[in-house]
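Write out this protein's structure.
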Amino acid sequence: MKYTVFALKWRPQNFDEIIGQDHITDTLKNALEMGRLANAYLFSGPRGVGKTSTARILAKALNCKEGLKQNPCGKCISCIEIAKGTSLDVIEIDGASNRQIDDIRTLRENVKFSPTQGKYKVYIIDEVHMLTTEAFNALLKTLEEPPEFVKFIFATTHPNKVPSTILSRCQRLDFRRIKAMEVVTQLRKIIKAEGLEVDEDVLFAIAKSSDGSLRDAESILDQLVSFSHNKVSLKDVVAVLGLIEQDALFGIADKIIDKDPKSALGILNNIIDEGKDIGVFLNDFIEHFRNLMVAKITKADQKLIDLHEDACQKLLKQSGYFSLEEIFNFFNILVAAQDMGKRLDSLRVALEITFVRLCHEKKGERVVKNADHTEKPVNKEIAAKEKAGSQEAVKLEIQQEEKDVKNFTVINISLDDIKAAWGNIIDNLSKIKMSVATYFNEGLPVKLDNDLLTVSFPKDYSLHKETLEKKENKALIEKTIFEKLKNPIRINFILTKEIISKESQNSAFIKNAMDTFDGRLIKEG
């Protein structure tokens, strides 16, 4: 018996079977029921999300012997022939290989002939954006005023490459990437019907790798079943697709928590020895910290993380060991590692340096300053609960951090001190995130009210202000100032009506340089 791949075997045959495109299927079903059908449709969206399948189903609904209704019967001769691709009334054209003006001229001649069996002659042109300009021009008149028995359905992954003259003559429907949970649900249905043994972790790994394409997900599952003889485990996915196991991501994060750079480097070395792409690994590790951030904020909402429940709970537990400030800082360090890898032409060296740095950046028992200048450690009971993975501990930690911030006080710091250190602050910022340093350097410190520093920008520098006010950028600046001045300064950005002279700021730079090199001013200006 001839084998049919999953992507074809499980191709939807009616609108109700299409996954993740309800906004489109509802529109088409209503149009069929009301008889409000456009002359031409443009289906746009990523690959493998159901554009061509929807076009065939619409063609079946138009020509079904039972008449126009929300779903074709699938049993009449017309429906069967269209499903097999043998119908003379439904002509599928590949826009990539039939893109010249002569191909479209042939189409224009053929549209004049009535359908042989059904009510409509339907032209489905896939990857329509590949047509030449001359071919599009030749199609225009026919597209605007086609015979009453002709319908056009165009499919494309690049709607921006379709001329506006064509777009204006089509009813456009935009297909979306399919959500990971919807992909997982469909894969569960397939493995149950096919009698396969597939671990739950595998389904989420496939959904993640498919990047919203159900067709890709079904093809990956097909490949894994062939590889593993009907019983698929996560190790099979890792071996076939070259993925990085979640355990490795959790493992290195644990070593950062334990401040154990030697073991972190050992895990990295194992990944490299297994032939994995460390560029992919770095992207996955950045995403891991994104998941830690989301888990910490949302109590591991599975809809936002797209991992199975056990992994989400593990993320929630691990997120308790990191403050949000640390997670934001680690984001910057990991992104900087990508740039470092390009400059060194060795991503391995960049990663090794980064992991050692992350282990040293991770705080142990955090110490905070109270208003009376004494120091006290963070509540050890909270730390113990965090280690046990308690959700209540995460809540308590956040509350504790808020109290600690309120107890901070500024000690022996003035606006002049900040101005004098401004150049060094900018320099330290540039080593972590150059774009932030560049924008911040355009500002001028104008006021210090207790622990609140106001930095002013000219009125036409709103982009600088908006960029620096982003949480991660603002946190990075405040951390850099704290490291330099040993005082927890908060930042406020404002725009001024007049253009601010940076003369006073330049004077601060000169004074700082003179202090650093024990110099003297020979001539000013």
